[in-house]
Amino acid sequence: MTQITTLTLAPSLDSATTTDRMYAEGKLRCSAPQFEPGGGGINVARAIVHLGGKASALFPIGGPTGRHLADLLTEEGVTAVALETHDWTRQNLHVHVESTGEQYRFVMPGARLTVDEFQLFERHLAGLPQGSLLVISGSLPPGVGVENLRHLLREAQRQGLQCIVDTSGPALRACLEVGNLALVKPNQKELAELVNRDLIDPDAVRQAALEIIRQGKTQRVVVSLGPQGALAVDKDNVFQVVPPPVKKMSTVGAGDSMVGAMTQKLADGADLLDMVRYGVAAGSAATLHKGTRLCTLKDTRRIYDYLRQDDVI
Ligand SMILES: Nc1ncnc2c1ncn2[C@@H]1O[C@H](COP(=O)(O)OP(=O)(O)OP(=O)(O)O)[C@@H](O)[C@H]1O
Ligand SMILES: [Mg+2]
């Protein structure tokens, strides 16, 4: 089977806690923190493992926070390929306020990567087998510019890796400039920013997706549309997949679950429709649980089977 590697350049050790009330100055007594791995590519690899697949997560680690992060991933069955860096892995904080139900998410800057440290990642990718899948997901840390990302992607493609990208803003633009990606998954807002205009109706979204396909920037685009599912486009097809109404608890992790599921389908050689159905199923499955939980195989299969009923009728 096709090997899957995810790359996360700005991972985090996420901690979650609850407090009764939020107020300034005084001490806010909190519950014992719960730790979880964080970062786009890391969550994509976790989602793949939740769905019964195999993935390696490649990311920098520094200091005790980094070791804690790598241990948590290993416990979950994700192969952690952690390259040591000087700066300590960042720690993000999620606070749930019980009296109001509010969520506060404190996001620190990623740990800085030096030029030498960044090159370690390029060297590691150079050792991956031709034809394998590389998922680049998440933000860029201090020390890494879009030109570095472009270089890494060019090198990866030159040696025959199929690249999947889920990021935003200048990093997304830079990846598409390299061209010929295997898959890109913007949400509607990210796509609008990319094409530099408002996308106010479904036809405008479809036109924008077709535009980047025709320009040869990517072989496939999946525009995720939250509760409305997703629009998948390649050079021959356009599919809209709408999930069944679900009782949404939290949308955190929906995008990463979706990318994980679609990556697994690409690794299996699935076609565009099957890939996006499984992606929408996993994304919606992730919303069924409170907090930061990713998709489960059981929920994903249930929604996927529902979405496939159209074929039988
Ligand atoms: N409220 C919802 N109800 C049902 N499904 C949802 C909902 N929100 C998201 N999803 C599912 O998850 C997929 C990805 O969600 P979304 O479009 O919000 O991605 P995203 O903006 O990249 O998310 P993230 O914030 O995780 O990066 C959707 O295509 C859909 O299948
Ligand atoms: Mg997203």
Automatic annotation (TrEMBL):
UniProt KW keywords:
ATP-binding, Kinase, Nucleotide-binding, Transferase
Statement: the UniProt record of this protein carries the keyword Transferase: yes
Recorded source organism is Acerihabitans arboris
- Which NCBIfam families does the record associate with it? 1-PFK, PRK10294.1
One Gene Ontology term, aspect cellular component = cytosol
Q: What is this protein called?
A: Phosphofructokinase
GO function term, MF aspect, one: ATP binding
Keyword Nucleotide-binding (UniProt): yes
Domain Carbohydrate kinase PfkB intervals: 18-296
Q: Which gene encodes it?
A: pfkB
User: Which Gene3D superfamilies does this UniProt record tie to the protein?
Assistant: 3.40.1190.20
Question: Into which family does the record put it?
Answer: Belongs to the carbohydrate kinase PfkB family.
The root-end lineage is: Bacteria, Pseudomonadati, Pseudomonadota, Gammaproteobacteria, Enterobacterales
